[in-house]
Each structure stands twice: as structure tokens, then as C-alpha cells.
Amino acid sequence: MDQHIRQSAALVALSPGSGLLGGLLFGAKPPVHHVHWLVVSEKARGKGVGAALMADATSRFVHGPGSIEVVTFGADHPGAVASGARAFYEGLGFTPAEATDPGPEGGSRQIYRRSVR
């Protein structure tokens, strides 16, 4: 976290009275950019906070051409539907790509990728 803050690659969404709504850690090694971590508080989900964080990160850090990649739950993972992560990324134009190493709890993971120009 400290490294991302020093590199200006950590973003947060705040709301007066509500506090911290979400956060994102981003890494750029063009032409491939990585969403290392994106979380939105339960009370703020479905209100555009995650999409706003992604849009802000893209405008600040992405200089195409290239791609943005994120690792999320595999289709067979119990958290895939519950978290809404796969649908969220698909709604932002990401497409499912290859499988990757399992998560820390042993569940399947998949890379999602979006091309940028």
C-alpha cells in the first residue's frame, strides 16, 4: 500500500458524512496495466463508485495502446456471483481471458482484460 501511495497509484473514494466508500491500487508497466486491488464498501455498491475509481485510474495512469488486466474469481468460484466482480468488469468492457493461479483460499481465478488505445 505504501509503495502505491508513493507512486501515486492508490486512489480512494470519499464522501462527506459517509467516509471511505472505496479504494483502488493500480500498477502500470506499459503496455500492460494492472488493477491490483479494487474494493467498494457494501453500502456504496451499485452506486457507481467502482466505475468512477476505474475511470479515474484509467485517465490518470493509462497511456495506450495496451491493455488493462485484473484477476478476479473464476466462473466456478462461489464468490463469483456473490461479489458481482465478473459482471462489474464485463460492464466496464473487460472480457474473460485465461485462467491464472488459484486465490489464497484455493478458489479459481481468471484474468479479465480490456484493450486501450
TrEMBL record:
Residues 1-117 form the N-acetyltransferase domain. It comes from the Bacteria. Signal peptide: none annotated. It holds the Pfam family Acetyltransf_7. Residues 96-117 are annotated as: Disordered. SUPFAM superfamilies: Acyl-CoA N-acyltransferases (Nat) (SSF55729). InterPro entries: Acyl_CoA_acyltransferase, GNAT_dom. This is N-acetyltransferase domain-containing protein.
